[in-house]
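Below is how a single chain appears once it has passed through the pipeline. First comes the sequence as given, then the structure the pipeline wrote out for it. We keep one example in the README because the format questions we get most often are answered faster by looking than by reading.
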Amino acid sequence: ACERRVALVRALSQHPANTVQLSVLVRTGPDNLKKHLHILRESGWVAKKGKTFVLRPVTHPVQAALLKLL
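Resulting structure:
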């Protein structure tokens, strides 16, 4: 499960995407994708703008360090 969220963060660090694009990029179904996006939104990593998901701006040094590792 964690690998999927890492893949989602990696994909969104490149460019915003909708659920169809993300589903193809991380190779998961819509229900599983919805669960992972919910977790990422609740934890402050991802925001939704309309039908598009975006990576939220880095606000914490640990978040910046983790993004560099991806």
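The mean pLDDT is 90.

See the next section for the split statistics.
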